[in-house]
């Protein structure tokens, strides 16, 4: 709760052009955002560029963008930049191996726009059983660790892992190949 209160104050300062608020936001989130991007891209330079782009956009749009929750907004911005990176780049064999995708013969960006695809995934997530959906959302959208989720819901860490595995299996089985490629990027497997 303390970070949320502080985040709202920092957001207010940011929207008013306060550089100290911007710096505090950067100091609070840049390292975690960088690690998040590195899980997928595994390229320090590209990840640094992505984080820089996210924060440049945050400052540039400070008075124009409505942000209700800072942390989810920043992580979503990084996800979008990762998607753009893969859309604009050709997958190397190393990328395919790392993402555990063997036969990708189509370009995701030609099939579906990012927002449409994200909405499809959200629709599938909405059709998960309630407890499974709740755990998946806490993990993938609120970026909570399995341990944090287990504590919050008063269940075991193994139960959290089982529900996340169940959700991922359901999503993989209900999405087309190009959507699975995006899902892998989206949830950072």
UniProtKB/TrEMBL annotation:
The keyword Protease does not apply. InterPro entries: RNA_pol_sigma-70-like, RNA_pol_sigma-70_dom, RNA_pol_sigma70_bacteroid, RNA_pol_sigma70_r2, RNA_pol_sigma70_r4_t2, RNA_pol_sigma_r2, RNA_pol_sigma_r3/r4-like, WH-like_DNA-bd_sf. Keywords: Sigma factor, Transcription, Transcription regulation. The keyword Nucleotidyltransferase does not apply. Coiled coil: none annotated. Residues 25-90 form the RNA polymerase sigma-70 region domain. GO terms for biological process: DNA-templated transcription initiation. It comes from Kriegella aquimaris. This is RNA polymerase sigma-70 factor, ECF subfamily. Residues 120-171 form the RNA polymerase sigma factor 70 region 4 type domain.
């Amino acid at each position: 709760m303390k970070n949320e209160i502080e985040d709202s104050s920092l957001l207010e300062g940011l929207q008013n052009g306060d550089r100290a608020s911007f710096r505090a936001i950067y100091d609070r989130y840049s390292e975690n955002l960088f690690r998040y991007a590195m899980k997928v891209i595994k390229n320090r330079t590209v990840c640094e560029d992505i984080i820089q782009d996210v924060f440049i956009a945050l400052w540039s749009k400070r008075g124009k963008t409505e942000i209700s929750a800072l942390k989810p907004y920043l992580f979503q911005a990084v996800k979008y930049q990762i998607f753009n990176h893969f859309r604009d780049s050709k997958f190397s064999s190393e990328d395919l191996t790392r993402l555990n995708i063997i036969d990708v013969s189509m370009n995701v960006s030609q099939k579906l726009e990012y927002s449409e695809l994200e909405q499809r995934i959200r629709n599938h997530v909405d059709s998960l059983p309630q407890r499974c959906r709740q755990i998946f959302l806490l993990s993938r959208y609120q970026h909570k660790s399995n341990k944090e989720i287990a504590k919050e819901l008063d269940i075991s860490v193994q139960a959290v892992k089982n529900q996340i595995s169940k959700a991922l299996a359901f999503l993989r089985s209900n999405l087309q190949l190009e959507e699975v490629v995006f899902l892998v990027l989206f949830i950072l497997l």
